[in-house]
Amino acid sequence: MPTPPPEQERPSTLQGDYNPAEYSAEYKLLYLQSLVANRAFEDITAFLEKQSEYEIASLLESFPTQDRLLIWEQVPDNIKGEVLAELEVDTRQPLMENISSKEISLFTQDLDAQDISEILDTVTDSVRTSVMATLDEDIRVQVNKLDTYADWEVGRYMDPDTIQVRDDITLAEVQDWLRANDDLLDDESQELLVVDQSQQLLGLLSLVDLIKHDQTTLVSALIDPAITINDRLDITDAAAIFRSEDIRFAPVINSHGELVGQLNAEDIMEIIQDDVDSTMKNLAGVSQDEELFAPILTSAKSRSIWLGINLCTALLAAAVIGQFEAVLAKVVALAILMPVVASMGGIAGSQTLTVVIRGIAMGQIGGSNRLWLLNKELWVGAINGMIWAIIMAFIAQLWFHDIKISAVVGLAIAINMTAANVSGISIPLLLKRMNIDPALSASVILTTVTDIVGFMSFLGLASVLIL
């Protein structure tokens, strides 16, 4: 039996035998690492049997590919389908390369249409056809329905299996039906979807109303309005609706008003998390498809594109500096202080850019408030620019004892920080207007702008005041 993590890495409350099922994700990861290192296959299986499909998926994504394959072999067969559905595509793909269509059919036996559709996205057409042929007719229809939607549409993420009742029946009939199908409701169910004979969504029936009113009452008398979402709506816009309305789920309707499914909060949370991850990667110039434990060459390739773009912008800034070679050759102090000007502008711009991109993602920026924000950032940049210009000018005076150099660096910082704040809001808004993801390229453009404005203002002022 492998030894658990060292004492200093274990919880202070740990006593007796180390039971990984009781502790945090980090401790489970350390424990599983020790099992894998010792090739303790039986212990790996025993450990995984105590974990949920979410925990196993997270653990698999925390290992390099070779170790993932080893761990995957020890995952209990009865939850392999659920685990596959929870994995990211890049993690799932290698695991499924050697799985037969027969095995996939067994894994997907008890899964819902959403999970099956997720898994079949990463198999060949022939495997997909074989697996689809083994599904129940209702599930097969639901999977085919989900696959008619684009990756960005609400319909791709909705649950097509809804609990719906007709408006022309009594509350007693609804209760009888629910008792006869006691697996329909879960602990979180609070409302039923109400439709008419043509499957048009009419609204919601609260379970509280179902219980407390006279059981001879018709459902139509107790219908509450529902916040609905169109099945062709962009999923990020749907996420914004969930945030603004603070709802747990929303019925999904098609263009004819017919109920086709429901969108749940847990699906929206997954979308929001994916959107956050994507934004963070884009801001850093990393491909959205790159995962933490991707192969070396894959990561190197995905990052090299943005490194090349950054090199081009750096050369552009260098070309600007080259135009002031004469003043740099005569005043060495300028070469020392020049990075300070660019750095202050870069930080100021990045602060504004981060806040603005978040505001765009949250749907908080639009219409007349864009001009208000532009004016605000202009003044924020000007105020901070003047404050730090005075501080840096004072430092330069103590350092070089030259009032002209102090004036140059102070004025350049004030100009660059003001321009950086204005650029930090105007660049993402302009990119959004051009239907370009601001998170993808705004940071590169901002860096170029702050470098060029900083160097030109600094060296231009030096040429005028010093030479």
Describe what you observe in this structure:
With 467 residues, the protein is mainly alpha-helical. Helix content is 62%, strand content 6%. The protein has a three-stranded mixed beta sheet. The protein has a three-stranded mixed beta sheet with strand order 4-5-6. The protein is extended, with a radius of gyration of 30 Å. The chain starts with 24 loop residues before the first helix and ends with a helix.
Alpha-carbon Rg, integer: 30 Å
Oligomer: single chain
| Total helical elements | 20
Secondary structure category: mainly alpha
Helix content: 55-70%
- Strands of the widest sheet, in order across it, are 1-2-3
What is the residue-mean pLDDT, rounded to a whole number? 83
What is the terminal separation in angstroms?
A: 76 Å
Name its key features.
three-stranded mixed β-sheet; 467 residues; single chain; mainly alpha; 20 helices; extended
Describe the structure concisely.
This protein is extended.
